[in-house]
Amino acid sequence: MGKAMSMNLLRHGFKVTVWNRTLSKFVFLLCTALLSQYLEWNLEICVCDELVKHGASIGETPAAVVQKCKYTIAMLSDPAAALSVVFDKDGVLEQICNGKGYIDMSTVDADSSSKICEAITSRGGRFLEAPVSGSKKPAEDGQLVILAAGDKSLFDEILPAFDVLGKKSFFLGEVGNGAKMKLVVNMTMGSMMNAFSEGLTLAGRSGLNPQTLLDVLDLGAIANPMFKMKGPTMLQNNYSPAFPLKHQQKDMRLALALGDENAISMPVAAAANEAFKKARSMGLGDLDFSAVFETLKADGHSS
Amino acid sequence: MGKAMSMNLLRHGFKVTVWNRTLSKFVFLLCTALLSQYLEWNLEICVCDELVKHGASIGETPAAVVQKCKYTIAMLSDPAAALSVVFDKDGVLEQICNGKGYIDMSTVDADSSSKICEAITSRGGRFLEAPVSGSKKPAEDGQLVILAAGDKSLFDEILPAFDVLGKKSFFLGEVGNGAKMKLVVNMTMGSMMNAFSEGLTLAGRSGLNPQTLLDVLDLGAIANPMFKMKGPTMLQNNYSPAFPLKHQQKDMRLALALGDENAISMPVAAAANEAFKKARSMGLGDLDFSAVFETLKADGHSS
Amino acid sequence: MGKAMSMNLLRHGFKVTVWNRTLSKFVFLLCTALLSQYLEWNLEICVCDELVKHGASIGETPAAVVQKCKYTIAMLSDPAAALSVVFDKDGVLEQICNGKGYIDMSTVDADSSSKICEAITSRGGRFLEAPVSGSKKPAEDGQLVILAAGDKSLFDEILPAFDVLGKKSFFLGEVGNGAKMKLVVNMTMGSMMNAFSEGLTLAGRSGLNPQTLLDVLDLGAIANPMFKMKGPTMLQNNYSPAFPLKHQQKDMRLALALGDENAISMPVAAAANEAFKKARSMGLGDLDFSAVFETLKADGHSS
Amino acid sequence: MGKAMSMNLLRHGFKVTVWNRTLSKFVFLLCTALLSQYLEWNLEICVCDELVKHGASIGETPAAVVQKCKYTIAMLSDPAAALSVVFDKDGVLEQICNGKGYIDMSTVDADSSSKICEAITSRGGRFLEAPVSGSKKPAEDGQLVILAAGDKSLFDEILPAFDVLGKKSFFLGEVGNGAKMKLVVNMTMGSMMNAFSEGLTLAGRSGLNPQTLLDVLDLGAIANPMFKMKGPTMLQNNYSPAFPLKHQQKDMRLALALGDENAISMPVAAAANEAFKKARSMGLGDLDFSAVFETLKADGHSS
């Protein structure tokens, strides 16, 4: 995703410096504003000649990029990577200082986000968490939805870049709220995917054409892009991963934990979460989250 | 809904005769085709001067309407009413015969539908079940989705009327399939409403603005008309019934029973069904089905 | 079970006449009181020389047995059989009359029970439904628990026989209550079996010895005969049916339906019911209900 | 519980030194073996004249007790307390050394237990985790079930004390297994309590006498001490806490998390967990865990 985001920034005239953590697992995106309303962006993706060809320059380490840039954006695969890039040797902390902003667009739990925020701000930097809703395709199209929280002034300054990366940016208040909002959205999505899978299963096993169900759903009050996009591939047992099932299940687990903290009973999300766990026990964790559909198939002669 | 549907037919030049069963509980809509591709429609709604003003004529009894019309459409509130209008004195059966078609657009279980079908066809009539997806507003706008099953030739002939009443009509095969498809759609919708309610609750009680959640959802992969329409009213605790909760719960119960017949385990729908039952136990059965949101509110000081 | 019950009555000096409906599927047990406090019982089990050897005589048809006996007890496999024996040709109704009592100990739904009750009483007979808690072993040992409802005077008269068949008899009021009580008990049992299966699974997959879990459970506050009896066989994947899973699932379905009528949300029973349905979809319906344990096993490489 | 356990040890001739952490929140129990097969025990409960009267002596700090004793037993209210007593100033670590054993009988998560184990053993001490099954009454009666894991030689030496405190002691292997076994048992118990609550609710609202259900259950295959003990108080809405609901829910959460690690789907436990969360949201967290019964009551006029 980092690559797609960098390309969008380059295309819109931002100056970009890039750095990439490992071969392909992590994408680290660093940027800086050079002029009043223009931004210089820095971004590297491993063996990323393509980006360099389009005008990106390269930073040797996260620290090097932060030194060079006013604004640094991170897009990493998980909380461990997000923490490592900040706290490890040659990491962000070594160069962050007054006047610089750090924007973490990775999907990170609230605790890790708070830890990073504290470290950045204690050195005078400004921090914004800004996880996104949307995966590869929306990233390429600059159609992400950005859920930002933290330093409001930094949000306002970085908005021109957000406008290139996404179709809409929200400022949600204190650090942690971006992560929470993302969890709420993904929990709702995970329950819906189960509702959808159950509907498709019931249709098929009751003698209806599941393809017709897709057509009917698409005309009604619950028509939505996910049903439209995933329905046809699910009917073909095609689960090439846009959003891996184990990540979906992790988000449901974290959302349920957030509910637990606040004494919120969410029986439907809990049932959906168990279905995703069932899918994991069937070895489907690395497939697309729509593979939860497989948990509903009959594996014997019913009686 | 019968009234809105009759108005649409009248507006499009159909001749309509109407009859209405009781004061306002039931709406019975009867129609007939006079000419090759034109239809004469008959429809009465209690004290329905408005329809008459627009050109409808009146039938004294269901039997009278069937006698007068080639095609008769019923839109009744529940299976009991659907059966009564056919089998009771002065009912449809007294006049149905070779050359006449009977289309029941009520939402009726597969058993009742089969019983009606058998009675109609044993007297030489043709039968089509045609429940609709969509409630009051789509009915007024001629934007219903029609789920027809039964006599294919009758379906083909009545299509011009369906095209006025709805935006899309499906022919689903044997009688019972219309009812089943509707159950599958409504089950999926009921689970989604719970997923949505849980998301709104989690947002609100975790310190996020639920209104912002609505905005975020509306931009993402699970954006759908139901979230857009119901979200704002739910946040105002406004549950004036478009689709009563007790009917939604009934449909979930029937869908689960259909699954049971076919040995289909649907844990998310089952959890959603229990939430709707909880809402009924709270006295919310006559409110809109979105009132299931109320089951998630804290009723004490959490600990 | 009918055979075991007949043997117990014969052993205690009751006179018994027997009739059996089909090869081995149904057991029909008929009895009559000859003397003041002694009862004459009649019972047949197909090719049941053993019972005859122990003193039973044989009735040619249900009607024949009723004619001969003051008290007739039925123990049949399901509601359809229970209805057939009463209403079919040569059935109970042909001879039931004033002065005779009919006791149905089959497990029958409340509706069928009411129908039988009405037919019996409209001919002057007295009726008692008396389903039992306990299966083969308790039947042999005269350790059933009898859940009677209907005619109190008949209950009082038949008590000496109940005392031989069971360890305790309850009179629960109006007809239907026996069936309901049985459903409540079986629903609770079905949820418990799932709780137990989940515990065994969690132990085994978390590196604990499931056999030790059985030992620990047996010493604690939730120790119970079912865990003690089923635990060891479940760990051996031995599910020879004492109580078939499909019957357990049917009882959960009916219990949930009873709850639905009364707007009772029972989320744990609903989840347990879906697990039993999952087991049915895996082809385990004819095995013991403890086979629901199989639904929890990993069928792939977890991730 | 610590007090009851100390009394039992004193009664059986053990020498006991006691220390208590805070006014009454924590009970810390320390013991040491003086002679070959006799043990010297040390235990303090705040203002615990009663124990002193029965022969206990007093340790000023945890460190002081460890110094004095060969075997030290801790019984604390939660993981935080268990950690504090070991790691804080004047804590166990200051005096633990080769030749001494530390037995933590608190209910502690596997992580905290491992942390304590590592600290103790790195200083030459031996460690045993030994959470118990059973609450106040079994503690007084010496009828606890002890779930020990860790150092097998320490287990063997401390067994004479365990035999006084409990009716049965299990050695479960590596540290962490005691905590896991306890979670499995409590998860099973929590689901059963929900199954029981649903049964009682269904009985009462369907026109059966819930007290009769208790009698019927007590005679059948699922009869168990918990139903017998809790049933009557639940019917009186009496939930004075033997095991607080919030602790039961915490154990279900941890058990589900353990299942999540191992990709185990446990839908019934998940539904039960949500019911306990609902109870917390109703402000019932400090009552007995049987208060989950309250979540099932109708709070409106059902429809």
TrEMBL record, chains A, B, C, D:
Reaction(s) this enzyme catalyzes, per UniProt: 4-hydroxybutanoate + NADP(+) = succinate semialdehyde + NADPH + H(+); glycolate + NADP(+) = glyoxylate + NADPH + H(+)
Pfam families attached to this UniProt entry: NAD_binding_11 (PF14833), NAD_binding_2 (PF03446)
Ranges for domain 3-hydroxyisobutyrate dehydrogenase-like NAD-binding: 176-294
Active-site annotation: K182
GO molecular function: glyoxylate reductase (NADPH) activity; NAD binding; NADP binding
GO cellular component terms listed in the entry, alphabetical order: cytosol
InterPro entries: 6-PGluconate_DH-like_C_sf, 6PGD_dom2, 6PGDH_NADP-bd, HIBADH-like_NADP-bd, HIBADH-related, HIBADH-related_NP60_sf, NAD(P)-bd_dom_sf
UniProt key word Coiled coil: no
PANTHER family: GLYOXYLATE_SUCCINIC SEMIALDEHYDE REDUCTASE 1, OXIDOREDUCTASE GLYR1-RELATED
UniProt protein name: Glyoxylate/succinic semialdehyde reductase 1
Species assigned in the record: Senna tora
